[in-house]
Write a structure and sequence with these properties.
The structure is a homodimer of 325-residue chains.
Chain A lengths: L2 H4 L1 H12 L6 E3 L6 E4 L5 E10 L11 H18 L6 E9 L5 H17 L2 E10 L4 E9 L16 E5 L4 H10 L7 H7 L5 H9 L4 E4 L4 H12 L2 E5 L7 H10 L3 H7 L6 E5 L1 H10 L2 E8 L3 E5 L8 H4 L8
Parallel strand pairs in A: 4-5, 9-12
Antiparallel strand pairs in A: 1-2, 2-3, 3-6, 4-6, 7-10, 7-11, 8-10, 9-11
Helix pairs in contact in A: 3-4, 3-7, 5-6, 5-9
């Protein structure tokens, strides 16, 4: 059976099964935003890795080397944020470069990565360059969980509030904008090129009672689906409550796209999706820029409701077409 | 300027320069076997990463998927060993897979990695699969430095003893053996496919007074050259003292190769190259299987001396031809 037949997720599930029950020293098994282990002395550390491959995860025709470097680090810091982790963090970088790669491009990639590191108190501790027919950037990152506990995908229970930071859909619309030749000054394009991991918000949410979290990298529906699956709950969210920015609405209009579709399925927003008891959620929203978009219930799966409380059929409405983005 | 014009080492040097002086939280700047940072609570952690790319670092025609997985983890553990680090360690794995990759091959790769993890008390904490036109394996690893200090490439001073663990050249000869269709039961082939990182020896050497270390991945001459450069010393080693295994001698004979050339320039042995004060070196050799091969002196560069004490001209003798291996 080839990967193309099994699917990437099928393969990942099998490999996770192989690792299950091994390594008691790992406090959180594979499958969450980051792994967690305990350093000598007792500190809890989150540990995560992510790779971006040319032609698969980025297209140099509309992603600059500077933003590629920035983003490659930012998506790892976002995983730390989703655990309720804290700066400082430490990153290692492996660059796969072809002999034809321009040295100046690699320097700009590093400049972008250093800019992101400076903004989020991350130290780029080193790395390596390897030869590769296709450019790739592989970053691994570790950072402390200073609360002595952490947020997982599996902590949600029925009857809790589902919330998101910021606005959704901007990044996917920004990517479409750039693909169609639009400039990088569009706020949506900026969010696609320079996502802002919610590092301080994640920890604050943990302090204020959040019980589950994930960063929105695959799109709201998929990532909320991950929380539901790992927690053994269902979720219903209200389409009208999903936060859309003015820029997303304007860009969607210019592109003849539906901003709600982008928000539900677009991905790469790197906002945090948080779950908390409804009582705690009120206090959190008073302090953190958070939008309540729905609630967890008994069952499984994610339902999107319209203003009249009717379930929206996602496939029929084309909300799915952003998934290929 | 393209990477092919600057050279990989030229590019790495430039990127290191960009990182210099940043991230005070990093206790050992980029350029050693691993980075070092301090976890909350004070524990020192080594942090390292390495990637293997199909067609560049391995050839599936003579490297099995099982050994690829084993080796991809082992070379990272070897970096931890070269710092004087300790188990348990924690690893993350990114696999770049093409849609044509067979699921069974990926499982065997993971089995090899798990076998290595079990032998060296490493926990594979998780990872990811990404699409890639060419298969790659990128591993990052962190482990504690329980001595509260660590071995670097820069700690050598003139007048000290230069020593190595195990025997050298086996791995390079084993690779040639496999390339020419030889079987994997040859001890040299085994060492190439399943290198044994010297994790416990590294820490013991640190306890007993070693002042500098590197793992031999690029070949004795190059790796000793790294120590000389980073420490600001020269080294002279005695060709007759370089430890060659019976298997290396026999395999070299069958291949019509010079085993000494393989030992000097072959690489991938993943033995430790250690430097210590001559007094301490005596005690270390009494307890650890170590061979004294030479000494550090004032100056720069590495000289190889024959039995009569004459410098061997390495280029003329063809000792260099293993470098391309």
């Amino acid at each position: 059976l080839k990967i193309s037949d099994m699917g990437e997720f099928g393969m990942i599930a099998e490999l996770r099964e192989m690792l299950r029950g091994r390594g008691e020293a790992v406090l959180l098994p594979p499958g969450d935003d980051a792994a967690v282990f305990q350093a000598p002395g007792g500190a809890l550390m989150a540990f995560t890795t992510d790779a971006m491959v040319e032609g698969v995860h980025f297209d140099p025709s509309y992603v600059s080397w500077h933003s590629l470097g920035y983003k490659a680090l930012a998506v790892n810091i976002s995983d730390l944020a989703a655990m309720g982790g804290s700066p400082p963090s430490f990153a290692l970088v492996v660059l796969g470069l072809s002999p034809q790669t321009e040295g100046g491009d690699v320097r700009r990639l590093y400049e972008g990565m250093i800019d992101c590191a400076d903004e989020f108190s991350c130290s780029i501790a080193g790395g390596d360059i390897v030869g590769s027919p296709r450019v790739f950037v592989s970053v691994s990152l570790t950072g402390a969980l200073l609360e002595g506990r952490f947020l997982t995908r599996s902590g949600a229970r029925p009857g809790q509030s589902v919330m998101v930071t910021g606005t959704l859909g901007d990044s996917a619309l920004g990517m479409r904008w750039l693909m169609q030749g639009g400039g990088g000054n569009n706020p949506c394009a900026k969010k696609f090129l320079y996502p802002q991991p919610r590092l301080s918000l994640g920890r604050r949410a943990l302090q204020m009672g959040a019980v589950a979290a994930i960063d929105i990298s695959d799109g709201l529906l998929r990532d909320l689906g991950h929380i539901c699956e790992e927690s053994g709950v269902a979720a219903r969210i209200f389409a009208d409550n999903i936060p859309l920015s003015a820029a997303a609405r304007a860009t969607a209009q210019e592109l003849h796209e539906d901003p709600l579709a982008a928000a539900l399925s677009g991905g790469e927003d790197y906002e945090l999706l948080l779950v908390a008891e409804k009582n705690d959620a009120v206090g959190m929203r008073a302090e953190i820029e958070l939008t309540a978009i729905g609630e967890t219930v008994e069952g499984s799966g994610v339902t999107v409701l319209d203003a009249a409380g009717r379930a929206i059929e996602l496939k029929k409405t084309g909300y799915d077409h952003f998934k290929e983005a």
